[in-house]
Amino acid sequence: MLSCKGLNKSYEKELFSEFNLELEPGEIVAITGPSGSGKTTLLRCICGLENLDDGQIFLDGKDITNSPAEERGIGLIFQKPVLYPHLSVGGNLRLGSKTGDIEKSLEEVGLANFEERKIETLSGGEGQRVALARALLANPTVLLLDEPFSSLDDDLSEKLVQDVKTLLKNRNCPAILVTHNKTIATKFADSIISI
C-alpha cells in the first residue's frame, strides 16, 4: 500500500499542499488538473526524482520519503516513452531488469515477437507498450503514469487505456495516472482526484 501524508511542494508558487492519498493493492487513481497545477511534480516527488518541501510517503508501512528513487520500487512511465534508439526492444527492456522474462513481458503488453525490433520502427502506441513492459518487468510495487496516452490518436488511446487497465488489475498492481483528460481518467481509474 502507498500512503502519502501531507505532501507539500512549492517553487515560485505553491503546487500542492497537504496532499493525502491511500492507495490499496490493485487500486487505480487518476489525478487531474490544468497544466501547471503540479500533477507531474507530484509523481516525481512520489517516485523520488524530486524532494518534497514537507510530508511523508510510506510504501507497505516503510517511510520512503528520503529514500533514493532506485530503492523505492516504484515504476514511472512518462508522457513520451524514454527509449534508446540504438538498442532493440529487448535491449531497452533489459535496462529495466536483467533477470526478468522479456518474452512474457512483451506478450503481456501485446507485443509478442518484438524483442529484436528496432525502436525507430515502432508506432507511438508500440513505444508506449515497450515503456510499460520495461516498467512492469521490474515488478514495481506501484506504477506511476504521467500522461502516457496523451500523444496518441483517440482510437489507439482508448484501446491502450483498456489494455493497460486490464494488465494492472490482473497483476493487482496499484497505479496513479496523471492526466488532463477527464474522459481517460474516468475510463482508467477507480477514483479521481483533482488538484
Which labels suit this protein?
195 residues, alpha/beta, Rossmann fold, five-stranded parallel sheet, four-stranded antiparallel sheet, 9 strands, 26% strand
Report a brief summary of the structure.
This protein is α/β, with parallel strands linked by helices and 195 residues long.
Question: How do the strands and helices of this protein lay out in sequence?
Answer:
Layout (H helix, E strand, L loop, with lengths): L1 E9 L3 E10 L4 E5 L6 H9 L6 E6 L2 E2 L10 E4 L11 H6 L7 H7 L15 H14 L4 E5 L7 H18 L3 E5 L2 H7 L2 E4 L1
Parallel strand pairs: 3-8, 3-9, 6-7, 7-8
Antiparallel strand pairs: 1-2, 1-4, 4-5
Can you describe what's shown?
By secondary structure, the chain is of the alpha/beta class. The chain has one domain (2-194): P-loop containing nucleotide triphosphate hydrolases (Rossmann fold, 3-Layer(aba) Sandwich). It has six helices and nine strands, in the order βββαβββαααβαβαβ. It has helices at 39-47, 89-94, 102-108, 124-137, 154-171, 182-188; strands at 2-10, 14-23, 28-32, 54-59, 62-63, 74-77, 142-146, 175-179, 191-194. Strands 6-7-8-3-9 form a five-stranded parallel β-sheet, with helices on both faces. A four-stranded antiparallel β-sheet has the order 2-1-4-5, with helices on one face. Helix 3 (102-108) packs across helix 4. The two termini are 22 Å apart. The model has no long low-confidence stretch (mean pLDDT 92).
